Amino acid sequence: MRRIRWNAPLVVSLAGLGLIVVLGIVAPFLLEEEATALSGAARAHVSAGHWLGTDVLGRDVLARTLVATRLTLEMTLAATAIAAVAGILLGTGVWVSGRRVRELGLRLIDVMISYPALILALVIATVLGTGPVASVLAIGLGGAPAFARLTANMAASVAQRDFVTQARLMGVPPYRVLVRHLLPNISGPLLVLLSVAFANVLVALSGLSFLGVGVQAPDYDWGALLNSGLQSLYTNPAEAIGPAVAITVTGVLAGFVGDGLAAALDPRGGRAKAAAVRPTAVATPSHRAPADALVTVDGLAVVLPDGTRLVDDVSFHVMPGEVVGLVGESGSGKSLTAMSVARLLPEGLSAHAAELTLDDLDLAGPEADPKRLATEIGIVFQDPSSSFNPALRMSGQLTETLRVHQGVRGADADRRAVEALEQVRITEPARVMKQYPHELSGGMRQRAMIAAALLPGPRLIVADEPTTALDVTVQAEVLDVLKDINHRRGTSVLLISHDIGVVGTVCHRAVVMYAGRVVEELSAADLRAGRARHPYTRALLAASPRLRDSGSGERAPLATIPGRPPAPAGRPRGCGFTDRCPVAIDVVCATERPRLIDDVACHAVRQEVQAG
Ligand SMILES: Nc1ncnc2c1ncn2[C@@H]1O[C@H](COP(=O)(O)OP(=O)(O)OP(=O)(O)O)[C@@H](O)[C@H]1O
Q1: In which compartments does the protein localize (predicted)?
Q2: What ipTM goes with this model?
């Protein structure tokens, strides 16, 4: 419950159900007499005295409908509880039992689920006989397989996680594993199923009473009233309307609670949308980007709600037709910087910058045109297996931006998608268009991702570690495709990579990041020639099998960088690299933040320049 994000449908439907519950509690006290009093006028029509008319014995239908609320809700709650408890126990029980019991339990659930719940309930009701207790038991047990299946499926993924295995190895008793580890991790979807099951149980119980198997006279629930009302449907339809409306409204409200809960528990739903970058109050740019730069980032900061700066004062630019690499170890802030440019920051983070523009498009402004964003910036993500929807064919996914933002449809869109696939060197593009993502290899998927990013004709491609999930030979092919696109179409590329070798070979210029800041900017030619100045860039080069021998021509052993980058909250006041730096100057490096002067932010380099 602690992670629920309240939304309007959830609040309204819960309030509606609450009102019905209150009605169910008070109506028998207030209206019992009226509901049983014989007025003498059988099947009377709607009148001021009887808003829904009277039944076959002359009793007020509205009063009876309201009084029946309590029994109906009690039975529905009881049957839902039986279904949930029996189903959850069975579904989780199989995962805390031994292998044989588990196999047997899972097969049993399979068999039970293959029978429609109502048929199962009717069979049970026939065995148990008529009456409210029998129908509650029947509907409850009939609904249990749905809970058992959901619980078993979800518990399967949790039960194999390391913390559950560890708990079992430590001898934690099964019921504690169940209560502490399994149930809390599957509670969200179970809550949703619970509200949907409530609606189904209500309809099923009313159905049994309607068929005469459920509640027996003189007791009555909405189903029994519906049965009686149906007999006078042509003479006094209002008699059936009361219970019918009650069942429908309550069922729909319970369904809305389920929908509302699903939305409220969905981590991607509700307000979970990409955070926009806000302009900072700083009006004077600190970074002198050329006037004709395509992308200008000046003084970008990405901040956690507690004020921790994950990315701090980052400035760089990308020229038209230029490939710029953002390089640094894991956690240096590359992705957050790139995602700020694409306005795709994860929820909860806020960003601000003195300037963040793509040509004349203000990426920091609140109303950056979504159409321009979608068509002028193409994004290639790291993992090609999760970039496409596995349930849809490639054609629909590749042409989506064209259809949505450029109004290009049908054969035209398909033709352009085929051309884009050809450009990324996919053979038989027409066949690939008809395939599903899982039918393509990882390298093909990543090239298709690049084709999708290319299709609307973007001016910038942001490629976030596009080859990390691929094996080495395929990596080279994908990087080649990116280089080729830049060469042939002049598309600028912002390439994020932790591999300085990749950046040195593919990019024109590298922006080296460490601990959320830019520490050096240099051309790829300088990188390849080993002309890096910042000790961190030099350490990255020494650790790169591709570039370590460049410049000197010697075969130095592959180096590692000792220590680890500081966590965002524990970064020192001065230079973040101080603790790992071989040339750190006492006190000053730890306490004074080095500014980026002549493309390098390092006190030691500055001192060297001044001395010599
Ligand atoms: N949504 C988030 N909430 C909290 N911290 C985050 C979030 N996203 C990233 N971070 C933290 O911000 C820092 C920078 O993250 P970022 O993903 O930009 O690094 P990166 O250089 O791209 O690393 P990697 O190559 O591992 O993706 C890291 O310390 C990371 O743990």
Answers
A1: Cell membrane; Membrane
A2: 0.95
Q: Sketch the domain layout of the chain as residue ranges.
A: 8-265, 277-528
Say if ligand 1 is within 6 A of residue 498 CB: yes
Rg (CA), the chain: 33
Mean pLDDT of 353-371: 83
| Residues 6+ positions from 127 with CB-CB distance below 8 Å | none
Under CATH, which number does the domain 8-265 receive? 1.10.3720.10
Q: Is 332 in the pocket of ligand 1 (CB under 6 A)?
A: yes
pLDDT at 107 over 80: yes
Ligand 1 close to Cβ of residue 334 (< 6 A): yes
What pTM did the predictor assign?
Answer: 0.63
Ligand 1 pocket test, pick from 310, 314, 347, 497 with the greatest ligand atom count within 8 Å of Cβ, gives 310
Alpha carbon of 275 to ligand 1 centroid (Å): 15
Residue 302 near residue 340, CB atoms below 8 Å = yes
Question: How many angstroms does the Cα of residue 311 sit away from the middle of ligand 1?
Answer: 9
Percentage of the chain lying above the pLDDT 90 cut: 37
Class of domain 277-528: alpha beta
pLDDT for 399 beyond 90: no
In the three-class reduction of DSSP (H, G, I as helix; E, B as strand; rest coil), residue 589 is classed as: helix
Q: What are phi and psi of 472, to 5 degrees?
A: -55, -45
Check if 336 has its Cβ closer than 6 Å to any atom of ligand 1: yes
The SS3 assignment for 311 reads strand
According to the model, what pLDDT value does residue 554 have?
54
Q: Across all residues in the chain, what is the average pLDDT?
A: 85
Measured from the Cα of 567, ligand 1's closest atom is 29
